[in-house]
Amino acid sequence: MFILLQTTTISLSAIGLPVLIIGALGLIFGLILAVASKVFAVEIDPRVEEIIEVLPGANCGACGQAGCAGYAEQIVNGGEAIDKCAPGGSDVVAQIAQIMGMEASSSDRKVAVIHCSSGGHENTNWKYQYEGVETCKAAANVAGGPNSCSWGCMGLNDCMRACIFDAISIDSNGMRLIDLEKCTGCGACVKACPRALIDLVPINRNVYIKCSSKDKGVEARQVCGSLHPCIGCGICAKKCPVDAISIQNNLASIDYEKCINCGLCASACPTKSILDLLVGTRKQAEINPEGCIGCTICAKVCPVQAISGELKKIHEVDKAKCIGCELCVPKCPKKVIEMV
Amino acid sequence: MKFTKELTKGFVKDNPIFVLVLGLCPTLAVTTSVINGLGMGLAATFVLMCSNTIVSMIKNITPPKIRIPIYIVVIASFVTIVDMVMAAYLPALHKSLGLFIPLIVVNCIILGRAEAFASKNNVLMSIADGIGMGLGFTLSLVVIATVREILGAGTWLGMRVTPLSYDPMLIAILAPGAFITLGFLMALINMIKEKK
Amino acid sequence: MRLKTFPGGIHPPDEKHYSASAPISNFPTPKRVIIHLSQHIGAPSTPVVEKGERVQKGQLIAKASGFVSLNQHASISGMVNKIGNFLHPTGAMSTAIEIISDDQNDMIALDDDPKYLDLPVDVLKERIENAGICGMGGAGFPTHVKLSPPEDKPIDTVILNGVECEPYLTSDYRLMLRNSDEILSGLKIIMKVVGAKKGMIGIEENKPDAIALMQKRCAKEKDIEVVALKMQYPQGAEKQLIYAATNRKVPAGGLPMAIGVVVQNVGTAFAIYEAVRYQKPLIDRVISITGPMVKTPMNLLAPIGSLYSDLVEHCGGITGTLGKAISGGPMMGFALPSLEAGMTKGSSGLVLLGEEAARSMAEHTCLRCARCVDICPMNLMPSMIANSVKYDDLDMAVQAGLNDCIKCGSCAYVCPAQIRIVQWIDTGKIRYAEAQRKK
Amino acid sequence: MGYLGEIFVMAMTAIFIQNFVLARFLGLCPYLGVSKKLDSAIGMGMAVIFVMTLASAITFLINKYLLIPYNIMYLQTIAFILTIASLVQFVEMVIQKNAPALYKSLGVFLPLITTNCAVLGVAILNTTAFRSDSVTPYNFLDSILNGFFSGVGFTVVLVAMAGLRMRMDKADLPKSMKGMPIALIIAGIMALAFYGFMGFQI
Amino acid sequence: MKYYLKLGFILLIFCAIASGVLAYINTLTAPIIAERKAREAIETRSALIPGAEFHEVQASDGSIFYEARDPETQEIMGYTFNASDLGYSSTVQTMVGVDPDFKVIAIRIVDQAETPGLGANCTSPSFTDQYKGLAIEDLYVNKDGGVIVPIAGATITSRCIANSIRKKAIEVRDEINQGGGE
Amino acid sequence: MNSKDKLIVSPAPHMHDKTTIPNIMWHVVLALVPALLFATYYWGFRALLLTLTGAVTAVVCEAIIQKLRKVPITVHDGSAFLTGLLLAFNIHVGAPIWLPIVGAAFAIIVGKQVFGGLGNNPVNPALLGRAFLMASWPTRMTSGWVAVKGFAMSGINNLPRIANNLQELSPKAYDLVTSATPLGVAKTLRDSSFVADINAQAGGIDLSGRIFNSLTEMETLKNLFWGNIGGCIGEVSAFALLLGAAYLLYKNIIGWRIPLFYIGTVFVLSFLFGGLPGSGSSILLPFFHIFSGGLLLGAFFMATDYTTTPLTKKGRIVFGIGCGLLTIVIRLVGGYPEGVSYSILFMNVMTPLIDRLTMPKAFGRVKK
Ligand SMILES: Cc1cc2nc3c(=O)[nH]c(=O)nc-3n(C[C@H](O)[C@H](O)[C@H](O)COP(=O)(O)O)c2cc1C
Ligand SMILES: Cc1cc2nc3c(=O)[nH]c(=O)nc-3n(C[C@H](O)[C@H](O)[C@H](O)COP(=O)(O)O)c2cc1C
Ligand SMILES: Cc1cc2nc3c(=O)[nH]c(=O)nc-3n(C[C@H](O)[C@H](O)[C@H](O)COP(=O)(O)O)c2cc1C
Ligand SMILES: Cc1cc2nc3c(=O)[nH]c(=O)nc-3n(C[C@H](O)[C@H](O)[C@H](O)CO)c2cc1C
Ligand code: SF4
Ligand code: SF4
Ligand code: SF4
Ligand code: SF4
Ligand code: FES
After folding, report:
1. What's the structural domain count of chain C?
2. Segment F5-23, tens digit of pLDDT
3. pLDDT tens string F51-101
4. Domain locations in chain D?
5. Which of A167, A299, C81, D121 could form a disulfide with A182 if both were Cys (CB 3.0 to 4.6 A apart)?
6. Does C4 reside within a domain?
7. Using a 6 Å cutoff on CB, does residue C370 contact ligand 8?
């Protein structure tokens, strides 16, 4: 390849000529590109431009798209994931997220909850022996589904397969369990479940109805294998201090806008069909008498009237009544209520 | 420290071959022997380090419209330097790497790092990044070449490491073996990752 | 003569020997019947009786709730006991009217009209509509709708479907032997209603006596031809039958009327005859109770709504352990979770299988053996549809023929990997419909 | 053997015997990156054919009329890559503006190809290649044809790869094999299948 | 316009600097490379016919071969030339030394890219040493009736080497004989 | 599930054909038994040993991998056994015993299990195993072949017909006809320098033409048909293979499209181009090409492998024609004497594309 210059001295032509030629090439191409970028300019979404700027421009194709520009285009217009650029690494992802305005804050993130406690496995009463494609969607279509409860989980794991984050597993009771750490709230499982048993709930709500049966109470008791069906008795609704529970079609449902995590409903449910994640871990309020000014605000917010005291006098919490909902804590102007 | 972080990330976390899967052509073409792999790796490291340095130095005077051509010119210059120096002092290696030396120019890692890292960071960090990525690249090449050379020639760095009765499995140093070896190595890495 | 048939198809053992030789006998009035409001394709009928009301046999108890819907009549006399959810022969729960018999068996008055063929077409159609007839070959399409093709689709041929290609079933066969004249008359009525010049009766070669008898009856009829067909499943499927008999292809996604053909089951023809001549509503039909688990397999003329359990009881009950109860034939029928289902107008048979025969093997990965592709009567790529549905590639599934499948089950029958192709296709169709709705 | 014969040999060599991807190890990144879908594979293939042909032509001229006469062959790399990169970028802009439909199906792949070994590779290889008599160096037309056929060879294996990978999307692969590992193994298998063309005496 | 010129100018500067640097480095390395190549060629030739002094001869078809002469007596010790042909997957180039009677003194494979482990083994002495002392007419692999034992599994490569040397040697001999006749 | 006492409910159809995967696979094995018997008869116990070694290795590898993958172990279905068997059939009897072992292991691991096992592999595992062996140990695969006792490797037994004193006349030619396989001879005769040489050695008579004629004459074809030649274990006797093929066709286990179009293409092309350059054609020529090498083994037992061949009917025709074309091209101008395995492998790679391009139109659907 190298036809060699036989000169050993640094002559002008040995250096000047190449400088001239390649320099000229550079000038020509620089000009062409500059002019062309003007003449052939095409309108594109400014976000696409911005992302192109951010991307490495290596055009390596690792993202599976047609080069960096193609990927940028796909992010903006095609809903492509933003973490596909290999050379860019994590910095680039963060930058794209910013451009796309996709930063989700973690406090109000939602996670999936399964509203059935049968788990479709050990606990369900079976209508027949199912032999067929092992997916919920297919089974639901064969004689109304293999489990006696036509609302409950069939346990063929469509949800589990749909979850690309491995957030769903089966616990020792054969119930499908959602790992709240891993769940991203993508909702894939919600779409996958043919019985519509899965629902997205804000992560800071910890009380769930574990049943979806709209059958009448007697029937529900008959068909439910887990023995924890919601029979629509309405006791929970009555117990709820904030009226977050309503009964429709023989089924209780919680309004998470209102729910305060107190867990009263769960302890009241005769069939134990309400799951309370905080059970046993709730603390109770205690008012530090030092700081209490007797403003009565806490007594007013307490849903169960566990706080008593006269105006301008030190208030006290009735431990027998306090349910640990923590509503009073942030309301106290003096910040003297503590959970212990 | 940030410097060491940038330096070491290419070894495992952002390994250009096993994790980022970039620059496969030289990876597969030259790993028929460890010495070739090492040579290619170091050559690329040199280019990467130098081009990162320059790109990071000139980052403020490059107009965006001709950014890529400029980077390419910078990279191509260093590649040509490597090419010429190698031809002069390491003729045997130069010959066996052949076409793949000029092709370092288009190795996606190099342009990618120039764009993604060097054009946004200071010179020191860019050098760290270049060396780190380059050594990560070299490391991967050596690993692949080790497997291929031992299986396919029964030697490592030219030294016989298998019993004389071993009849080398030629395919390992041929094209199909290159793909398959890399495939299995990557699967192995996936497996280890899964275990964690 | 080379027998006519269609391309593709399979040859399952026909298993008709259980009940083929049993002439049709009457099933005595049962204790109760369950009359489903959805016995047909289209909107469920609207009940016109209330709980506790007494009804006569033949009395209208639910009326059509639209054009594509059906009248339902009481098939016994007695008391309306409940309007609620009951097991449907498709295996699912569905709304039905339960009538408890009062053993009076009094029927609404019928009158004979021997000159029925001279009636105007409108009247004929009205009588068919009033009688609540839907197709009795399985799909259950309301017959009055099928017999009202739009003006721009002239019908020239009516084909009676006496193929009965499903293994085990013999109800159409026995009906052809018992009521050949009436069926022929029914065919003439249909031809008159749709204005067709030509009539055909398609029968498979495994029913030689039915072919012979029908040929004898048609000997004098110039426009009516009995077509003997080669034995091959699914010859009874509309498009395949039309092709076998007339060499015409129904366009994909189209209806037979697009090529000037109407197909009716022989049982439907019989019901049409009765409806037109006597104005008798469709309240009974012939059903085969058959299979290795039935003590004495029979072909019974039973009131619509009779419970399968009662019918089986009448046949001497079950011998051995019951593994599977299939409503309909074994290729397309539905396995039931229990026998407490009331038969519908489309119930042509009940097949009872033992445990051994009922078990199926686990699915394996598709071998790509192409057996399914080779035999698909619709010329589709069943394995590809199934696999595409499994891996959520609906576009590919559609390209491979998802929407053209008639769910005949031939593919799943031959698949050595035991892939439940039809169930995958079913799932795919549901998902496809969901996806379309979203668009 | 006339020139047609020569072309035939060149085509067979570039497509089957010395396939760019499987035998020469060039253009592997797009081969593995853009073979996930059949449609993109076809688009990419067409774009590669176009660029390789174009690059072969222009670099031949640069080589012949600039580098060789002035004895600056050592600047080959820099001259070629600069030319190719600028040219492709230019063509891309032109297509994007004037033929949006073409751009959608083909043009979007252009930037991906600029910095692709296959293109620079063919340009460099052309400068040292000989005809089948192994004495006559490639002339202008030879170079263009070689670029074209090399692109075709790339496209053939890219499209076949896409077909196979789409099949693998619908298979129960072991978890650790999913993605790149299986693609590489398929590539290896393809290379092995192409060994049938080795040693052709045409 | 000025803006465009500026862009072009910047690129020009970069190109100019780059090529300047490269040109400079080239002036440093080129001689080394050239010298190395020349030395290698000489070394190879000397290894084939040790102790000789080489004179370039241009054949009538333009190709080049070398006369090896005794530095003292100027007696012709033999000739060296390059032979090449298409092997299995590459062009195999051999440098050959023959004595004045055109018996092979030694050969050396100077360029090949055959399959590693197969054809590439042709550089090993166990293969090349077989050629020593053979008359050029006898340069056939044993499968073609000669005495050269081909490399295991690489008959094609071996055959191509033998054939290319034979053909080229005959050409060279004819050339010399003609030249001598004139 | 606590539902054993309940009725079974499954989707339609409720009847099933009796054919199952093990059923199919073991039938194919059975159909290969005649070929194995012939090979054992010709070459003795070693042929049997190599074959069973390959088959057993394949089964063991499959079991181990399935165990590691924690999926059900399905080696009883016979597909691994068949793969091992066919791989060994593609090796000659003089090969070292580790060759089928390594080959079968590669075939099962890289050719099949990494893709998820039966039904998912893109190319024929046995042929991949063979290609792997060819690329890894070409010497072992191409040397040390053994002829059937009492016969020449090439099947040409009537040497005097070529020339009474062939051995003296041209040792090279003699060597060729006694120690190369039929296709090897045919290939060598396409080397013009070789041909010029032996013809010159024989003093100008057309030795090459005579050899080629003997190769394609009835007597040699008979040897090819019964297997009195050198070759790989499984391919040796056309008769035994046809016997097995007939059984499979009768049992409807293999379709007729691929074999017919494969062999048909070879027939036509070899009739047109199969002779020596410049020499005429003969109707025996196609038979030579069909009975020699692995063509029948390939066409009936390997190009018909379900998993790696097109699903569509038209696709299978294209596949057959493609295989035939490539086989002949490789045999005539390629680098190997035999092209069956590579041509099938190549067409395997193209199978997904063929399937796409030949999707059938549904009944009643009109072309757009
Ligand atoms: C939605 C729908 C509309 C139909 N409309 C008509 C119609 O207008 N005319 C007609 O003759 N048949 C009509 N049919 C009946 C079909 O031709 C056919 O008889 C019915 O689907 C049952 O056929 P099968 O049992 O072969 O599936 C209709 C069917 C369906 C499902
Ligand atoms: C696979 C398949 C098989 C069928 N077999 C029969 C049959 O054997 N006899 C029959 O009358 N109808 C059969 N049908 C239904 C016919 O397609 C068609 O709906 C019927 O003949 C129309 O008549 P009807 O409306 O009077 O029921 C079958 C349908 C399918 C899809
Ligand atoms: C992957 C592979 C590489 C090969 N490389 C060469 C080679 O470099 N040189 C050669 O002569 N033959 C090569 N061959 C060809 C075979 O080894 C061929 O069978 C051999 O040349 C025939 O010679 P033999 O008679 O010594 O076995 C190669 C074959 C394969 C499969
Ligand atoms: C007709 C037929 C031919 C077969 N041919 C092969 C073959 O050539 N190679 C092979 O490895 N397996 C063959 N098998 C076995 C099986 O299909 C093979 O293991 C699968 O390719 C693995 O997925 C064959 C099976 C059948 C039914
Ligand atoms: S599928 Fe999405 S929403 Fe459901 S559990 Fe997994 S991550 Fe959560
Ligand atoms: S998808 Fe629904 S029915 Fe199926 S396992 Fe999950 S929760 Fe249960
Ligand atoms: S794909 Fe549909 S039409 Fe074809 S055989 Fe299967 S069920 Fe029948
Ligand atoms: S019959 Fe079954 S195994 Fe065969 S191709 Fe069809 S789905 Fe696959
Ligand atoms: S390194 Fe060759 S294309 Fe990326």
Report:
1. 2
2. 789 999 989 999 999 999 9
3. 999 999 999 999 999 999 999 999 999 999 999 999 999 999 999 999 999
4. 3-199
5. A167
6. yes
7. yes
Structural domains in chain A, CATH included, are: 46-100 (1.10.15.40), 110-204 (3.30.70.20), 283-340 (3.30.70.20)
Neighbours of B45 (CB within 10 A): 20
B47 three-class SS: helix
Between CA D184 and CA B184 the distance in angstroms is: 9
Amino acid at F79: S
| Nearest CA-CA partner of C226 in C173, C160, C155 | C160
**Residue type at A52 in one-letter notation:** I
Q: Beginning with the edge strand found earlier in the chain, give each strand of the sheet holding C334-336 in spatial order.
A: C24-26, C298-303, C284-290, C349-354, C322-327, C334-336
Cβ contacts of residue B1 below 8 Å, gap of 6+? none
Residues C273 and C138 in one domain: yes
β-partners of residue D115 are none
- The tokens for B30 are 């030259």
Q: Which residues of chain A have pLDDT under 70?
A: 1-13, 40-45, 57-62, 64, 66, 86-91, 101-108, 119-123
Closest Cα partner for F120 from F359, F341, F354, F352? Answer: F352
pLDDT band at C364 (very low <50, low <70, confident <90, very high): very high
For A58-80, b/e burial (b = at least 16 CB within 10 A) is bbbbbbbbbbbbbbbbbbbeeeb
pTM for the structure as a whole:
0.89
Instruction: Supply F34's token pair.
Output: 């005649």
Q: Residue F140, class by beta-carbon neighbours within 10 Å (0-12 exposed, 13-18 middle, 19+ buried)?
A: buried
Does the N-terminal peptide bond of residue C120 adopt cis geometry, omega within 30 degrees of 0? no
> Which atom of ligand 5 lies closest to the CA of A162?
1
Please tell me whether residues C352 and C203 are part of one structural domain. Answer: yes
- Pairing mode, if any, of strands C334-336 and E53-58? unpaired
Max CA distance (Å), chain B = 62
Q: Which residues line ligand 7 (CB under 6 A)?
A: C 376-378, 380, 382, 405-411, 421-422
With b for 16 or more beta-carbon neighbours within 10 A and e for fewer, the F19-42 pattern comes to bbbeebbbbbbebbebbbebbbeb
* Best mutation site among C263, C270, C380, C413 for ligand 2 pocket (most ligand atoms within 8 Å of CB): C263
d(CA A303, CA F325): 86
Q: What is the DSSP string of A281-308?
A: T---EEE-TTT-----HHHHH-TT--EE
Which ligand sits nearest to residue D117's alpha carbon? 9
Among chain F, residues having any CB pair with chain C shorter than 8 Å are 6-17, 19-21, 23-24, 74, 116-120, 255, 306-313, 316, 355, 359-366
On the question of a cis peptide bond just before residue F13, with omega within 30 degrees of 0, the verdict is yes
3-state secondary structure at position C322: strand
Of A102, A43, A92, A41, the closest CA to residue A68 belongs to A92
Output the CA angle B70-D30-A43, nearest 5 degrees.
60
> Which amino acid is residue C421, in one-letter code?
I
Query: Please, which residues bridge with residue A253 across strands?
Result: A246
Both tokens of D131, joined, read 């005809």
Q: Where are the domains of chain F?
A: 21-142, 159-221, 254-357
| Whether C336 and C381 share a structural domain | no
Domain that holds residue C222: 1-21+110-359
Q: What is the dihedral of CA F261, F264, F269, F274, to 10 degrees?
A: 130
- Characterize the bridge pairing of strands B159-160 and B155-156: antiparallel
Distance between CA F315 and CA C351 in Å, rounded?
Answer: 40
Q: Which chains border C (3 or more CB–CB pairs < 8 Å)?
A: A, D, F
Regarding the beta carbon of E115 and ligand 3, being less than 6 Å apart is answered yes
Judge if C144 and C277 occupy the same domain: yes
- Residue C255 resides in a domain: yes
